[in-house]
Amino acid sequence: MVYFGTDAEVCVHVAGFLVTRSGRVERSLHHGLVIDELSNVDDHRMIDGGTHMQMWRVVMLLSAWCWFASGANAEVRTREVEYKQGDTVLQGLMAWDDAVKGRRPGVLVVHEWWGHNEHARAQAKRLAASGYVGFALDMFGKGKVTTHPKEAQAFMSEAQKDPAVMTARFRAALEQLQQDPHVDREQIAAIGYCFGGSVVLDQARAGADLDGVVSFHGMLGTKTPVERGKVKAKILVLTGSIDPFVPAEQVEAFTHEMKAADAKFQVVTFLNAKHAFTNPNAGKAGLDALEYNAEADHKSWVAMLGFFREVFPAFH
Fold this sequence. Notes:
Elements: E1 2-4, E2 10-14, E3 17-20, E4 25-27, E5 33-37, E6 45-48, E7 51-54, H1 56-62, E8 76-85, E9 88-97, E10 104-110, H2 118-129, E11 133-136, H3 149-160, H4 163-179, E12 183-193, H5 195-205, E13 212-216, E14 234-240, H6 248-260, E15 265-270, H7 294-311
């Protein structure tokens, strides 16, 4: 079966593999797949249960199928949304493509520790260009946006003090998304970056009624491992191999946690990618741990789109 999308990538699904025009190869979602991304196709290896397989021949054979109908006809529209959780005023951005007819899946976008900034808003627009409705939500409060690490840490720490408030703000955003006339309220996913990655994973651990969640360079640890059978959402974790905030031990612990919970999850590791690899402004923060990686940014987005094709089969 050939899948056509709108993000300058095409995916071919043959014999259990998902291949993209850029040479990305992955298996369909199953328990605990870990893919080792290398810098070029010829050196690509897949790590699956300890077995290494040379994949460049598969890429060469299948890439002939990978031709894409571009998103030139996309008509992305946006609207600002002001909403509340309790007495806290929050801000959001709803984005959709007017060229897409009918209701479609909605995707929440949870920002990094910087707050509801342009990076999060841009992801909502990219989702819209890919045929979904994207809603960049707000976990901190209207106006709480910064570029300074100390202030960002303060915003994040304040938000994390009360898990109940975190959940309430997530649900408030979910209500806004589900009320949008372009959204099929029965098809909902959430993606998050850095701080936002941990937010969406914690919502999955809590049994949130989501079809899928995607964590981009998010922290994976938890003080309360999930109970077996509680996770409803399919999970995709996209992480960097040299992210000091998400070391290999944390990835391994997360993998064990998800396996014990009988969750459907996938972990993709991008070699030579640090923390915040999707944010072009990561290097401006003055922290060595943060660095933009254009290749990991691009390939992680493609991996997410492939994941959504499995999560929302009726839409594709």
